[in-house]
Amino acid sequence: MVHELDPLGRVGDSCIVGAGFYADKNVAVTGTGNGDVFVKKQTCVRVAQ
Q: Which residues make up the binding site for substrate (predicted)?
């Protein structure tokens, strides 16, 4: 489903390792929210550390 306010071809943060998700052999983290902040801050990898 395409949201009418999102530009075509936009890639969200969910598929970016470290931003939308992160996993290693000890922990796995996923997140949702303000994608721009998740990408800039690499939120999920920081939480995992």
A: 10-13, 32-35
Residue 28's DSSP bridge partners are 23
Whether the predicted pLDDT of 2 surpasses 80 = no
Instruction: Write the DSSP string, 21-49.
Output: EEE-SS-EEE--S-HHHHHHHTHHHHHH-
Domain count, the chain: 1
- Binding-site members for substrate are 10-13, 32-35
Do the domain assignments include residue 17?
yes
Sign of CA dihedral 31, 37, 38, 41: negative
Q: What's residue 1's pLDDT?
A: 52
Gap between the terminal Cα atoms of the chain? 34
